[in-house]
Amino acid sequence: MTSPATPAESDVPAPLAELWKPALLRAAAALVFGAVTVFWAAPSVTGMSLAGGVYLLATGLTLLWGIPLTGFRREAPAGRILSAAGAALTGAGVALLFLQGSLVFAVVGAVGLAVASASELYLGIRFRGRHVLARDWLASGIIGLGTAGILPFFVGLGPHALLGVAGGGAIISGVLWILAGLSLRHDARAAASKAVN
């Protein structure tokens, strides 16, 4: 095992009591967006932009809110990487709320997802075996980079196809994060029970 780069990242905490909350919020945002994309038969360009914007904004804000719960300080390198990921998604979400069009959705969505996913992939590799979320960051990073990579190829097929691609990635990611959140919640309750006994 390699030694951490800074004291702020040493002794990365095992499951923290509140870490399950941002994981489940992120899962909820992804699964709600995914459900919208599955059941919305004929979305307009405006509807696509609003739905995608709200999803990216909610995911970005959840990432930013959850940074302290990961055990990283915001000013530590890992905290700054998570901040960049959250800011990229938040910025992409706000942009999609105001800028509409299939090309805009594909490019802005892909860039926001790519930055956030690359950040999570890096953290997953960097903290593999040392942080409880490392495997989830790895998987989420791969899913997000895959979604970002194929999204621009569907511009010509219109809003329904673009939402389908984004929603497919969101559903896979949502299932991952709901499993992570429920596992973390279970572990936190088990740890609390042991501490009481």
Provide a descriptive summary of the structure in words.
With 197 residues, the chain is mainly alpha-helical. The chain contains six helices and no strands.
Report a brief summary of the structure:
73% of the residues lie in helices and 0% in strands. It has six helices and no strands. Mean pLDDT is 88; it is low at 1-15.
What's the layout of helices and strands?
Blueprint: H1 20-39, H2 45-66, H3 77-98, H4 102-126, H5 134-150, H6 159-196
Individual helix count:
6
- Going by helix content, strand content and strand pairing, the class is mainly alpha
Coarse morphology: globular
Query: Which sequence of SSEs, written as H and E, runs from N to C?
Result: HHHHHH
Measured by DSSP, the beta-strand proportion falls in under 5%
Characterize the largest beta sheet: strand count, sense, and whether it forms a barrel. none
Cα radius of gyration in angstroms = 17 Å
| Low-confidence spans | 1-15
Distance between the termini: 33 Å
Number of strands: 0
Helix content: over 70%
Overall residue-averaged pLDDT value: 88
